[in-house]
Write a structure and sequence with these properties.
single chain, 4 helices, eight-stranded mixed beta sheet
Length: 159
């Protein structure tokens, strides 16, 4: 289904949150939407892997790595797993790596930046917790809409 975040924003003033700019698009699908699963990463990609290797059923994984720029919590192998398991997108408040490969995948990916170093694999991470970054609060089970104009969040489906 085609949508435009600017139109959704105009039609839902006071009902949606606008995510502040600063999460550029790295995926092969720049227009995506779905229900959110949230994850606090703690510089560790273990729980990111666990989530993306499980059925995504058209959902979006929102990962808060506290804006860390020294390590990536998403790379091409995890992005490929996301595609295979039906995830529509991944938002990372932090870094990804393998950006050239991810750009060729039918997956929405937004992150602060790219860095070649990967994060830890120590099993840390909190799933389905409320996250706050880029001026917005990301709540598990709510909805995210992303396109070339930006990202907006809604407690209820808009389409």
């Amino acid at each position: 289904m085609t949508f435009n975040t600017a139109d959704l924003s105009d039609a839902n003033v006071g009902k949606v949150q606008i995510v502040l700019p600063g999460l550029p698009d790295f995926g092969g699908n720049s227009c995506f939407h779905g229900q959110m699963v949230t994850l606090k990463a703690w510089n560790d990609y273990s729980q990111v892997r666990e989530q993306l290797k499980s059925p995504g059923a058209g959902k979006i994984l929102v990962v808060d790595n506290a804006g860390a720029l020294h390590c990536a919590v998403l790379g091409d192998l995890l992005a490929a797993a996301a595609c295979e398991n039906g995830w529509l997108g991944v938002i990372v408040n932090g870094c990804i790596r393998d950006s050239a490969a991810i750009a060729g995948m039918q997956l929405g990916v937004r992150a602060l930046a790219c860095v070649p170093a990967r994060g830890d694999n120590a099993g840390r991470g909190d799933v389905n917790v409320e996250l706050a970054f880029q001026g917005a609060v990301f709540r598990p089970g709510e909805y995210l809409y992303s396109d070339a104009d930006g990202i907006l969040l809604s407690p209820a489906p808009l389409l």
